[in-house]
Amino acid sequence: TRAAVLEMLSVNHVVKAKVEEECNRVHSLIMACLGDGVEKAFALDALKAERATLKHKTMALSDLLAVFRSA
């Protein structure tokens, strides 16, 4: 999925870099969730917050693409 998204965005280097940054951040949180202890609890909370943020960003991007398509 990550590779497919990055390939679609490869024409815009700024967007591609931002998506790569988001993917890396989520990946590091997921890896932290696989551990034990306090770090796992912190990572789970951070991952939930990141999920909500990405959900809003995705909706905004979808709306923006719809505007460009209709123009």
What do you see in this structure?
With about 70 residues, the chain is an all-alpha fold. It has one domain. Helices cover about 85% and strands about 0% of the residues. α1 packs antiparallel against α2. The protein is elongated. The model has no long low-confidence stretch (mean pLDDT about 85).
Secondary-structure topology with pairs:
Elements: H1 2-8, H2 13-33, H3 38-70
Helix pairs in contact: 1-2, 2-3
Key phrases:
single chain, 71 residues, mainly alpha, 3 helices, 0% strand
Helical content band? over 70%
Task: Find the count of extended strands (DSSP E, 2+ residues).
Answer: 0
Largest sheet: none
Order of helices and strands: HHH
Strand content: under 5%
- The overall number of domains is 1
Number of helices: 3
- Overall body shape: elongated
CA-CA gap between termini: 29 Å
Short description, anyone?
This protein is mainly α.
